[in-house]
Every structure is written in C-alpha cells, then in structure tokens.
Design brief:
Four copies of one chain form a homotetramer. The first copy, chain A, has 439 residues and is of the alpha/beta class. Chain A is built from 16 helices and 14 strands. Chain A has helices at 37-41, 47-51, 74-92, 101-104, 111-132, 159-178, 201-222, 246-255, 268-273, 278-287, 314-326, 348-374, 377-385, 392-398, 404-414, 424-437; strands spanning 11-12, 22-23, 31-32, 35-36, 43-46, 96-100, 135-140, 183-186, 192-193, 227-230, 240-241, 262-267, 291-295, 335-337.
Chain lengths: 439, 439, 439, 439
C-alpha cells in the first residue's frame, strides 16, 4: 500500500516554481563539473530522524503520528516502515539511505532474537532495494540508547558491556555488508565521560582503540570493503565525547596507528557544537586526506544542543560543496540528511518539504561552488597570496634548504617585504555575488 | 632603588591572618607529598602581564602608571623594569619567571639592533638572577604583536615574514639558554586564519611544522636542553588558531613526527575558550605523557575572550594539582601565572594581592589534592569501577585475547552484568568535604 | 510499606563524618542569623526530577527502575509514588515539596477525568502532609509536555489551546490552594518561538499577559493568597523563550502592569543558560524587590542545555545565600531542588546522596554568607567605595540637586578626584578564606 | 587635497559587474516600496571604526597607516581626518555619519581645552557638511576610554567622575545639535560591573537613571529635538553591561519612567553577544515601538567578542530590513556601519571594499524584504496561523471577554482543535528562493 498517497513524486520545476512540493534547484540529471547533480550530491535519507523520530524532546512527548506505525506488533511496524521509507525515498528522489541497527528492527528478548529480527527486516529491505534501485550509503550501530550503555559501549567500565557492543557491531557490519553498504560509521554516542572524578580516560581510550582494531580485523576476515568512518561530536549526550572534532579523532587514529583504516564522517551541527564552522571541519579532513562522508544538517548557533535541523543556509552548503569538490568529490561518501523536521513540523508533508529544502540548498550550493572553482576566484587569490614561497628564500623554505642560520642571515640583510591586505570583505562580497548570480 | 618600598616581603601567616599582604595557605617550606610546597608548585611570574600590561583593553587606554616606567629612554625603562621585577619576585617569594623577547627589551630600528638590545638586558637580568637566586622557567618569542605578523609568523603567506620569525625564535632560544631557561614555549598568537576564503591551511600547517623542525635542529646544534613546549589556544587573536587544544596539538605533532620533541604548556583560560575544563586538558596531556608546564590563570565562563584572571577557584586549583600529582609532579615545568590584574586593579599593591590570591589558591589546591591521593578516594573508586577488566572476559579484552567472534559468543551466552551507579553527586560531595576540611 | 527500607533517616554527623548517608554541614536546628538552618533554607523536593525522571535523555531510554512504579495501573503507581515521596522527604529531612499537576497524576481521557484524577491524588497527598508535617512550597502546571502545546500554551497560535491551558492552570491553582501551597509558579515551557518566520510575537505576548491577568483575577476570586512566581529561562525547549531572564520578565511585568502581582523564581541553571551568573539574577531580583523563590541546581558552563545538576559548587551556594540574606531571607519562598540525579546515578541510594550533596552545599553556603555579612566584609568595602555620593557634589547628585549645568561647572572647576582600585583579586581571596575557614 | 586619489566615486554597475570598486546591488536612486534606496537605507559612516581604528587588537599593534594622520600636531590630524572622512563619504555615496566626541578631536589638558577643541573641529565639519550635503545621523560621547572611567561613567563609584561624564554628555549633545544630528546615542561602555563583590548595583542603576533624566531635561532646555537612543550590549568591555539587550533596556526605561524619551539603537553584533539573533532584537523593538536606529555590522557566532565585522550575510540583512519595513521604515534612524575592516584588511582601498560589501548586502536585503512583504508570503501565513483568535472562543480571548471559568467550560466541552504544522522548513526554503530569485 502507499503511505504517502497524496504526495506525487517530487520533480524539478525550476527556480520560478511556486509549488512547495517541487525542487527549485535540485535537477538530478543536470551536469555540474562533469557529473550529474545526482552523482555529485549522493543524497541519503537518515532512517532514524525520518522514520523513527516522533517529535519527542526532553520537555515533551511525541507530536508525530505516522500511519505506518499503526500496526499491532513491533516487527510488523518495522516492516511497514521499510515500505514507507522506500516509498518516501522514491518520491523524494533520494538514492541512498543510512541506518542504525536499532532503527530498522526492535530489540528482542536477547541478543540472539535481536539479531534474528535484524535478519528478517534486512530481507525486506533488500527486496525494496532491488525494486527501487536505492542503495545503502552506510550502516551503523546504536550502542548508546539502551540503558546497558549508560557508561559507554567500547569505553564502558563494565567489560561485559564492551563485549556486548562488540557483538552488536559485528552484526551491524554483517548486515551493512549484506545490504551493500558503501561505508560503515562509528559514532560514539556514549563514548566519553560525565565526570573525571570517576573516569579512567586512559583505559577507556585504549579500549576504544582495541574495539576499532577488532572491527578492522573482522571486516578483513569477512571481506567487507566498505569504508570505515568515525563521526566526531564534542558533547551530548555525554558531557565530554572522546571524538570531539576532526583534529581529536585524527590524534586518536594516529596514536593507535589506525589512520589508514578510517576516514571521517563530518556532521555540520557537530562542527558547530565544537565551535568550528562546517567548512573548517571539512577543510581539516580534506588536507589530511580523511574526508569520508558528510552528515548534512544545520545547527542553531544560539543553541547549545544538537538541533539537527535541515540545512537551508546557502553559505554553509556552498562552502561545504566547495571543500568537497576540492577534495575530489564525495567518492564513496554522500550527503546524508542527519536532519530531523522540527517538532512543530509534525505533518507527513513536512518530511517532503524538509528534504526539498535541504536538497535544494545543497543543489544550489553545488552550482555556486562549481562556478567559484571554474572561475578560480579564491584559488587565484590564494595562489597569488602565497606566491612568495615559490621563489627566493620562500622556495628555500618550501624545499627544505633553509635553517635558522640561513633565515637569520636573510632577515638581518633584508628585513621583510611588505604585507598586502587579506581582502576578507571583498572576498565575502564576491561570495555573495556568486551565490546571488550563479544560475 | 626600591620600587615597592611600602611592601614588605610577603610571609606565610596562616589561615587565620587578616593581613591582606600575607600568605594564608602558601607556606613555602611546608612539606607536601615528600617535597616542599615551593618545590611542588614551582611558581613563576609572567613578565608581560605583571610588568608590561598597563590596563589597556579594546575600549580603553592604560589605567596603570608604574614608577619604573618613569624614565626617559625605552632601554632605561627596560632596565629599571628588570630591577622592579626582581624586587617584586623577591618580595612575593616567586622562584621563577617567564618572558617573551619583546617583554624585556624594546624593538630597535632593525633586527640587529633589536638583538643587541636583548643582549644588553639579558646581562642585567643575569645579574639579578645571580643576586636573588630566581630562575628562568621559560622564554618565548612574541611573533604576533608587530604588524609584520598580521598574517601569522610561521604560517604567514609572506615568506620573508617566516624568515624573520625564524630569526627571532633563534635569538629567543639563545637568550633562554643564556638565562638557563628550563623550557622554551611556542604559542602561535597569529598562527591561524581569519577566513578560509583566502587561506591555504595545508601550506600553512606544513610550514609551521618546518619551522618547529628547524627549532629542534638548532636547539640540538647549540646544546639547548630545555624542554620545548607548545601552548594550545583555540581562538583570539585570530578567528581560528591552529593549536586549538591539547588533542589538536597532539594530532599535529604526531602527523609531523614531532611528538618526542615537544610537550604542552596548558593554560586554564585557553582550555575554557576551547570549551574544555582545565582538568580535562591536563588529563589529556597526562595520559599521553606530554604534560610539560602550566599557565595558571582562570577565565570567566560567561565571557568569550581570554580574560587571564588570577586563579582563585579552589575547585580548579585542586583538580589541576590532582592531575599534576598523578603525572608525577611538574618536573621541569611550573605554575606560571599567565594572569593579569583586572584593569580596575591598577594600583601597585594589587600586583601583590593578586599573586597572593593565586598562590594561596594553588597552595590550598595542592594540599587538598595530596590528601585526596593519600586517601585514594577517587583512585579506589575507579579501581573498583573498572575491576571487570581484571578478570574473565574483561581480562581477555585487556590482554588482547578477544576478538569479535569470541566477544559475540560471550554476549550471546552471558548478556551483560548489571551496571552500577557512577555516583557523581556523592563524589562531588566528597570533593567538597576534602576542600573544606583538609588542613 | 517502606520503599527505602535500607536507608535510615539522614542525620547530621558533622564535617568529620565519613558516612555518605549523613549530613556533614546541614544541621537543621542550628541557629544562623537568628533562625534555624531549617527555617533559613526552606529546602524543597521537586516531585518531577525526584519521582518521575527515569533517566531518559534525547539519546537514550530510562536507566532508573523504581519499586514504586511496579504496579499495574497508572493511578496506583501515582498513589504509591506519593507514599514513596513522603517517605523520601521524611528520611532526607526535606520540609517542602513542589509539583506540576502532571507529576502527581496521569492525564485521563479528557480534561474532566484528568481533573478527577488530580483530586483523587491530592487527597492522598493531604493525608501524607498531615501525617508528616511536610508542606507544599509551590504548585505549577505542566502546559508544555502534551503535544497539544506544541506551539505554546498561553502563546499558542491555536485559541482552543489557550483555553485548555487556562482551564489547566485554573485547576492547578485550585489544588495548590487545597494543599496549602505558599506560592504558585509559572514556567513558560513552550511560551516562545521556534522561528520568527511564522510567529506574531506581539499577539503572543499580549495573550500571555491576558492569561496571567486572568490567573490574578481567579486567585483573588477564590482567595488563593499564595505568591505568584514567574521562572525565567532563555531557551529550551523552544529556540527562544519569552521569559528569557529576570530583566526580560520585569520588562514584561511592567509593560502589562503586573509587577505588583508577581515575583520571580530564579533557577541557577536558567541563569547560566542566559549567560548570567546565578548571583546576578538573584541580585537583579533583590534590588527590584521581586525575589520570590529559588530553584536550586547547577548547570555545566561547558554545556548548552539545562543539565539541572544537584548544586555542589560552594561559590554558587555562598553567593546565592549572600543575596538571599541581603534580601531579608526567603520569606515565602524556598530552595527547591529542581535538580536531577545524573542518568548514570540510577540507583535509589543516589537520590539520597544527591540531596545530601545539595543540602550540605547550601548549608555551608549559608554559614559562609552569614559570616561575611556579620563581619561586613564586602558591605564595608562597598560603603567606602561609594562614599563620594554621601557628600559634596556626590550628595547633590544623590539628592537630586544637580543638573548638567551645575555638574559641568563642577567638572570645569575641579576635574575628577583619583579613582582607587576595585581590588577584585583581594576580595576573591577573602571570599576563599571565608569559605575555607568559616566553621 | 585628496586623500583617496586613486579611488573614483563608487557607482552602481549592476549585479554582473566584476569591478570590485562598484556597487552591484546598491542603486541609490532606485525605488523600493515608494522611496529611493538612499531614503530607505539611510546609510551612515562610523567615524571611529573608519577613521580612528588603526588595526590594534589585544595582541598586536596598529597595522594601518593613513596618510591623513601624517601630520605633526594632533589637532592638525583631526582636521585632515575631517577632510579625508568627507572625501570618503562622498566617494562611497554615504549620506550620513555618526561620531563620538573623542573621535573628532583629541582631549586637551583639561575639560575646557577639550571642549574648545571640539568647537574648532565642529566648525570644520560644518563646512564639509555644507559643501557635500552629508548629514549627521547621530553623535555620542566616549565616556569609557579614558582611565577616569575605569569604574564607569554614570555608574562610577566616584561622584566626580559622574559629574565629569555629565559635563561631557552636555557638550556632546550641544555639538550634536550644532551639527544637526537627528539622534543622540547612549552606549554604556563601562556602565556595568566587573565583580558583584565590590558593586552596589542598585545605587549604580539609580544613578544611571538620574543621568539620563538630566540629559532629557537639558535637551528640552536647549531645544535639541533629536531622538535619544540607548544601545544595548551584554558584555565587553565590562564583565556585565547593564544595558544587556533590548528587553533589559526596556525594563530599565519603564522602571524609571523614561520610556517615552528613549528609543533603541540595535547593533547586530551586540544582539549575537546577548545570544539573540539580530532579527529578534529588532522585532522586540518593533512590537514595543522603540526601534530607533541600527548599528549595521555582523559578529562571528563562533567568537565571544565584538568583532564588528562588515555585514555581508544576506539572511541577516534581509530579515533586518524585513523588521524595519514592518516598523514603518527607519524614520529618523539609519543604518550606521558600526563595522571595522579586519586587522588584515589594512589598505585604504579596503575601506571602500568593505563599505561596498556592507551596502550591497543591505541593498539586496532591502529588495528581498520588500518583495516578501509585497507578496505577503510570511504575513499571509501568519494571519492564517493565528486565525482562531478572530472568531469564537479566540475572539472572546482577544477582546477580553474570557476568564478562567468560561475557558474551563469551553475546554471541558470542546477539548482542543487540531494543531497544524509550523512549516519551518518550507518557510526557510521560500526565504531562500526569495533571496536567490528577487531581482
Ligand atoms: Co550525525
Ligand atoms: Co547531530
Ligand atoms: Co598562556
Ligand atoms: Co590566556
Ligand atoms: Co526550574
Ligand atoms: Co532547569
Ligand atoms: Co554599536
Ligand atoms: Co559592536
């Protein structure tokens, strides 16, 4: 049956359209920098926010009531949810999905039953994937929601919880492989601490590394070739999350000699919670060769929690796509809308309106970023700005021929050449002009 | 001549004293954990905040007028400032000082003259060191104040500025060696960016690493055995500083294979600007073996800039000393008061009152931390909390015998054992009791 | 039956006690400034955090399982919860409680049934109050949790929701009266906006004022003489809450001519979310004569949401009690622990340990504040600091005899007299000494 | 002589222009909603940031060296600066300017000389105003920079400083009148506190009100008909500024019965420092009838100090102009660029580039806002959203016929009607479309 009967497939109608249920900027087949928009953007639906978030918040209960949840048993609901999800993705033209193990199937009475339930739902998903051609961008484990993970999973003080988490991740990697997932994500929802007064950070971080190494070994053993990704977040739910930001994760991966096995999944709102811009985090990943995938959403800079809003800020989408294009595109990654409709946007239609808002914002961002790169606006400016490293003493520095003595001799003899303006305001005005004028 | 004629040497009078110009808790010769307080705390005076900060802020001019600045030429002022500084340290019982090159001597018309001036003042300082027994904890370079560093020093887009910075650091290391400095600090005041629109972060970070390698080579060449330290800060003056926090610096050091040459200088206010607690940053350094030294100050959690207040929060000083003692003490490092009197505390007496406030707060913190460790309050709690890693499946994990298959088998067979409470509130109450009751 | 069988009544054992289940500082009968501690502190239990919070957070489900919830029907649970709550208050020596209508009784199928259920539970509570002598500090309405309040209650865009909220408040005032509540609190959980794009702030604020006026009229009509209180909070759950902070609430009350009918209920964590210190908000209330009551908790300055932690920071409790004593004490108000045990403190014993931590922290704060006032430490300093307004031109200003012309004449003739230091560091050191040395 | 010889008058060249020194969107004579852009936007130059900010920051000295400062005596510099400023405004097509007394003339040896100097420069300014037709939007007093104001001006603990501030404001109002200033602004740069330990907030706020009343009286006496404006800011330079935000200022004005004499000058960056959006603060002023004027700039949401950047964010300029147009336009107020070029934008050309960036951003914002209003996009949505207050029980509420009893009767009988979605995501997408498509 159809769950979104009143909604037709969302089509591209162009920037002049007044139809709320149409794309204004996302034109899947349009070519941008040698690929279709569809190929460049690799949009993904987040199973959790789209199909299991019901509008609860810490101060209020569910506002959303979905027809597909209107069934008797939880497994039946889970199956209907699969059908609804694929209908939604088809109609919204979303080519990928991302999921936690616990999003797709409810926990059973024990791990064995839980795993059996996963298998049952995975079969349904595979059918739908086959029917629609929609693919799995990544899978992951929810090892933070169940009370057993109250003190963490891989960093729990309880060794049996570590074991349970390992078992859960094992299964999640298996089903991600089964579904052809192109990546597998680790987000350490409770991997952190509430207070240092009771925490052995050294032991916990060592254990985290052990868990990740086991995951690498197991993936190799079963031939899972998806990319492993770590998703940084600085806080929430725990007071301090170990995977604070891109730099912290890279420090961890280098320390435990895991850098060749992992890339990062950068979420916009996690960047802002860490007091970085989204672009900053993407840039840090790009120059370190670890940009894996992107959780496309938006935070509210005035609020201190993870609002996971649909991304509608054109500056953010433009500058994100700018870094992504500079990095050579998303390759195996994608733009996963780890975004939820506002609690007050509780109608089913809002799901479509929100995805349209986000997809259009990124489509526009892609086009602006591509134009900026084609015109080499910022690239030429930067090349000129750093030109002094291409000749003379600068070239000596770049090529490793300088030391303190030669540089001192140079400075004593020559002083410094004049600096020139950084031209920030002009560059911001040009960015505005490109955003407003790129067609 | 004496500059602080009205002030006598500050003496320990005990907790009942009502004399503002006496220590209530800092009793230099008192033994704590096998050393004197003086040896444990290794207090240092910051030359800049104490002797060159005049009360300016972005909205107002100097409020402080010091008698030692009342001389005709800038070099005469610089010399008198040395005398005043050592008189101050003697009277305040501060055994170490820290300095930037530009704190102690004014820049000359060119680098040669500037360096000659440094030599002239260094000679004066050496005399005073000999006379008083006061030592140099660390030296550093101010490569951020002069307009030539507007785009950075080691990360400048202007190669001649890189060269100039290298020359300046070379000289600063030389004079730090000359003064017997036990450490040398790198704080990247302008090593960061204002906008990504004009910045090549990859080139800048590579250059930063080149500069640090040259410093290592030069130190080795001249036989400087002081410890190199990097001081993290996330922002201010630049929008983004590359050395954001301890984790970011460790990622950088590991990437460029510099981790064995550098430790960290952790500043409390820089921690809070990075949205970490002071204790967190010390803890991260401790468990990675890179705790070098400490900039003892305090920020205002409600303000978003580096207020560099004198540290008077007993929780912070206790938990900082707790981490330091766990790390085996300060070794070559110290507690440098990178703290400035408030702009409204503009009288000379305030300098003493402020140092007393900070030294007493750390002295009390030391005693409380020592008692907590002696009683193993938190250590026993943690040992018990993580005991499951000492036996059975936990021991298998710890000792590397577990993998995903064995852990899954364990989880399927055993589930998880019950978690126990983290007891955060009880531990906080115990901390209060120790703070209030430790004598 | 007894729900806390293993816990004996918590007794004062003094600062040397190592018994976690004893008070170290809270000695109910001890006299401080002419009253017993019990009278000065007027501690209250929050029904919601203590008896209905189960450890859920946005990323995880309940961690707490309480024996009194182990009943078949929701009304039975509600009744057993009353018994457990009073047993808890008796054992923890808490003389007051605070409640929302929805804390004490579950909603029924319609408003009539819901109200009937309230009546049924209120009768049980009254019996327990009679049996124990425990009193009601305040009641309030939960007009934010149910999905009908998704767009607000008094500020809803849906007039029938406004009507429903009014009906709910009417009933809540009635039962607060029935229970002898000394105050009634308004916290506008959803009275704010998510986005200005869809919000008529003027209409919403006018409506809010209308609702409050109706409440005043109704209270007068039924002879409810409890104090009406508004509790400010700047954000969460909504992006912007209208009752942002004390100043904003006072602006609102003055605009709508409601200032004589309302006082404020200041919550520490709401202050910090508004980027104010707890003391600041209490001070602003004090000098405007609107300090009504206090929600005693603590936030984490590094986190951007309402953590509602048990207050264990002695600086905060001391400076809060300082303002409260300056204001003449709590009068009808109290110290309500709007505090919840951490999600990881899920054992029943943690409830006691947490209340002990908070009560001891405030007891100590009370004693330190009283000593500071008795010794007039800060008061004398301030008197001297502002002495210039007691004579000469300052007195002319104070007494309204000065104008721009006379002041200009004075300034032209006299310039300004020297400023003296604000002595912040010395005052902070004195505060430390009083905290550490007051017995 | 001409100071900006290389710069021609900045002309509108349209959105396709690649000339950095041309307007792309600001077309002064173009009609928008019945007025020219010039009349709608009323742009003003800030004398301080544009002509006295030299690039200093707390960690570095001046980076900007201006030809007009290249004179021997400070009064000569002040005069040349006037000429440079008017040349700048002419070339940049800025019709208004704003100034502090201390921006235009250096302080003399005493107040009398200082005032005489002001008169001398005012005469030069008047000539230039006559020559160019450029007008004064507002004047103000710098009563925060001089060390005499270390403890505040109107809220100083030193009564002679209060007198001096009064004299200074008197003179500043006089010269503002002389220059035909349409407004006079009060920004309380040091009107706040550093620590509550030494502060009598009640006395300070009472004094502040006294000062403002004297100002009102004096304005009336001399017939100054300009609008008095208060500019809120929450912190910086002081830890806490009394004029925190719009709501706090309104509370103050109502308390002291000054609301009819003052309006507000809303600065974007001060809004964000107070954790409000720019639009929020404008909205609060609009619905309270106190929107006076606007300081057009932009903060960095990741930084905690007043960066005063040139406003280039189209969302901010659109939503600001939206509120301004809803309020009936700027009337006597204007858009004053309280914005400074970045320290690294130190070339004279950057001044023009920055103003162009800001003026274009607001011009575009004006056009988008006007189109949104003409199409009644959000207004129709809101009208429909609140329609329930136009009939039935909602109308009873609106028109004052409802009370708790009638509303309870309604709720018991009718329950609530269904809520509808707030449609935030759709509205954000429409805003994007209007920004991108409005020509
Ligand atoms: Co995510
Ligand atoms: Co998120
Ligand atoms: Co420092
Ligand atoms: Co600092
Ligand atoms: Co509360
Ligand atoms: Co709260
Ligand atoms: Co301003
Ligand atoms: Co500003």
């Amino acid at each position: 049956m159809a769950y979104f009967e009143k909604i037709q497939k969302i089509e591209y109608e162009g920037a002049a359209s007044k139809n709320p249920l149409a794309f204004k900027y996302y034109n899947p087949a349009e070519m941008v920098m040698g690929k279709t928009m569809r190929e460049q953007l690799r949009f993904a639906m987040s199973y959790w926010h789209t199909f299991t978030y019901m509008g609860n918040d810490p101060f209020g209960s569910a506002t959303m009531f979905r027809t597909w949840d209107n069934h008797e048993c939880s497994m039946e609901i889970a199956k209907e949810r699969v059908h609804a999800a694929f209908e939604f993705m088809e109609k919204a033209q979303i080519p990928y999905f991302c999921f936690h193990d616990r999003d797709i199937a409810p926990e059973g009475k024990d791990l064995a039953e839980t795993n059996a339930r996963l298998d049952e739902i995975v079969a349904v998903i595979k059918e739908e994937m086959k029917r629609t051609g929609i693919k799995c961008l990544w899978g992951t484990t929810n090892a933070f929601g169940n009370p057993r993970f109250v003190h963490g999973a891989g960093t729990s003080c309880n060794a049996t919880v570590f074991a349970y988490a390992a078992a859960q991740i094992k299964k999640a990697i298996e089903i991600t492989k089964e579904l052809g997932g192109e990546n597998y994500v680790f987000w350490g929802g409770r991997e952190g601490y509430e207070t240092l007064l009771n925490t052995n950070t050294e032991l916990e971080l060592d254990n985290m590394a052990k868990l990740l190494k086991m995951a690498c070994n197991y993936a190799e053993e079963i031939g899972f070739t998806g990319q492993f990704l770590i998703e940084p977040k600085p806080k929430e739910p725990t007071k301090h999350q170990y995977d604070t930001d891109a730099a912290t994760v890279m420090a961890f991966l280098r320390k435990y000699d895991l850098l060749d096995k992992f890339k990062l999944n950068i979420e916009a709102n996690h960047a802002t919670l860490a007091m970085h811009t989204f672009q900053h985090e993407l840039n840090m990943c790009r120059i370190n060769g670890v940009l894996g995938s992107v959780d496309a959403n938006m935070g509210d800079p005035m609020l201190g929690w993870d609002t996971d809003q649909f991304p509608t800020n054109i500056y953010d989408t433009t500058l994100a796509m700018y870094e992504i294009l500079l990095a050579g595109g998303l390759t195996k990654g994608g733009l996963n809308f780890d975004s939820k409709v506002r609690r007050a946007s509780f109608e089913e239609e809002d799901l479509f309106l929100a995805y349209i808002a986000g997809m259009d914002a990124f489509a526009k961002g892609l086009k602006v970023a591509a134009k900026l790169l084609e015109d080499r606006v910022f690239e030429d400016f930067k090349d000129k700005r750093y030109a002094s490293y291409k000749e003379g003493i600068g070239r000596d520095i770049s090529e490793g021929r300088a030391d303190f003595k030669t540089l001192e001799a140079y400075a004593l003899a020559n002083g410094v050449t004049l600096n020139t303006s950084g031209r920030q305001e002009m560059l911001e005005a040009i960015l505005n002009q490109y955003i407003l004028e790129t067609k």
